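Sample intake sheet
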Amino acid sequence: MSVMVVTGTGTEVGKTVVTAAVAAAALAAGRSVAVLKPAQTGVGPDEPGDVAEVLRLAGPVTGVELARFPEPLAPATAARRAGLPPVVPQEIARAAAGLAASHDLVLVEGAGGLLVRLDDAGATLADVAGLLDAPVLVVARAGLGTLNTTELTAEALRSRGLRCAGVVIGSWPAEPDLAMRCNLADLPEVAGAGLLGAVPEGAGGLRPEEFRGAAPSWLAPELGGTWDGAEPCGAFR
């Protein structure tokens, strides 16, 4: 695949760190990578956003941010309150296609969940995936409640004729509880797609060289990694 959309089952689930891990694994395999953030919210003009964090952790990827809005709100609301034009799916798709022409992999990282509105017309990241005919990687929480939000996201993808590339757990603790361990088996069933990785809790705090070295061990071969899912904690030792 040349373009993959990365979404979450909600906010603060680890999308950016997962995006960085996928980028790092691709770079380690000798692939060229671009990361596209259509709408960055909640940061000021001179503050580092998600693209900067991916570059810090993953290494030399091409980073592109299309729009930035200062308040930590849904892109449509943040754009409206800032008096700025929203970013629209057609603009995002054009940018992703342009990057795909010169990169082996383009990762399009959304804001929040799949159906967070980009503009007042109700456009979402799902519309972007449809225009690009791109698979969607879902980043989910590890614990109680994740099955519901993951299944809702997967159902929204299916209803729109979009393909779920798989699920990655955005933050896997060193001492998972019973629900988390059970979710390893249940997440693929509710998503209708494979569990493609589990990123250890606190991975974003690693030194960049440590992050890049370990990232492939957190991801399944479908994402350029070596993780087989059999011993989820084994990759974190």
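Comment: The longest helix spans residues 15-28. DSSP finds eight helices and seven strands in the chain.
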